[in-house]
Amino acid sequence: MESPPALQLHMRRRRSANYQPTTWDYDSICSLLRQDPLGSQQQEEQAAAAAAVTEAESVQASLKDSVRRLLLLCQHLRQEQ
């Protein structure tokens, strides 16, 4: 018994997503969508790590500036005594 034409067409369209897409078909789009969240997640993690480093550097610079001003103030007060 032969399958109905609609089922044959459906089975022909269902292909593995493990091929290089030459056209934008359903499988290639799904394949790209499955790959994108992992790449996006990795990019978000890298951006968060870079932001944390930038924030740490900013806090460190601010702390150094505060210590520098306190030392100058202490030096100034000692000179007045």
Quick overview of this protein structure:
With 81 residues, this protein is mainly alpha-helical. Helix content is 79%, strand content 0%.
Features:
mainly alpha, single chain, 81 residues
Describe the structure.
The chain is an all-alpha fold and 81 residues long. The protein has one domain (5-80). The protein has helices at residues 5-13, 26-80.
Number of helices: 2
Number of domains: 1
Order of helices and strands: HH
Helix-strand category: mainly alpha
**Percentage of residues in strands:** under 5%
Q: Describe the biggest sheet?
A: none
Give the number of DSSP strands. Answer: 0
Poorly predicted runs? none
**CA-based gyration radius:** 31 Å
Share of helix, binned: over 70%
**Spatial separation of the terminal alpha carbons:** 108 Å
* Mass-distribution shape: rod-shaped
What's the mean pLDDT score?
A: 75
How is this fold's topology laid out?
Elements: H1 5-13, H2 26-80
